[in-house]
Amino acid sequence: MTPELMTRLSEGTFSDLIGLKYTEFGPDRVAGEWVVSPQLHQPFGIVNGGVYCTVIETLASVAGGAWYGARGTVVGVNNNTDFLRAVREGVLRGEATPIHRGRSQQLWQVVITDEQDRMIARGQVRLQNLPTA
């Protein structure tokens, strides 16, 4: 799987709607970026926190699935996101890395940064591993 193929496979999904494009894909790290547009703002002109939650959930789930591979599928069971800095425009980047990968669950951290490499948001996603029957 390549970042370009993952981006193509995501066409028509919620992550495509917000403009997420994958830039790195592998079992130990998945990254993506998107351009902030007014459609992603909340009424006060800054990026809606739900956008960060979506990116965090998506990158962690894709990374966890890449690591779990043919053993089965993964599903998110918890998403905890902290919003650290307001953003109105620019390109944002998210990067998912593992904290724990076990037999039944995984825990991934995702950090979102701006073009100046400032941390904008961070989150953790716990995934349940669902083995193939």
Polypeptide structure, described:
It is a single chain. With 133 residues, this protein is of the alpha+beta class. It has 3 helices and 6 strands. It has a 6-stranded antiparallel β-sheet with strand order 1-2-4-5-6-3.
Q: How can the largest sheet be summarized?
A: 6 strands, antiparallel
Strand order of the largest sheet: 1-2-4-5-6-3
**Would you tell me the structural class of the helices and strands?**
alpha+beta
- CA radius of gyration is 14 Å
Q: What portion of residues belong to β-strands? A: 35-45%
What is the subunit organization of this protein? Answer: single chain
> In whole angstroms, how far apart are the ends?
24 Å
Arithmetic mean of pLDDT:
97
User: What are the secondary-structure elements, in order, as H or E?
Assistant: HHEEHEEEE
**Low-confidence spans: pLDDT under 50, at least 5 residues?**
none
- Name the shape in a single word: globular
DSSP, total strands: 6
In helices, the fraction of residues equals 10-25%
Number of distinct helices: 3
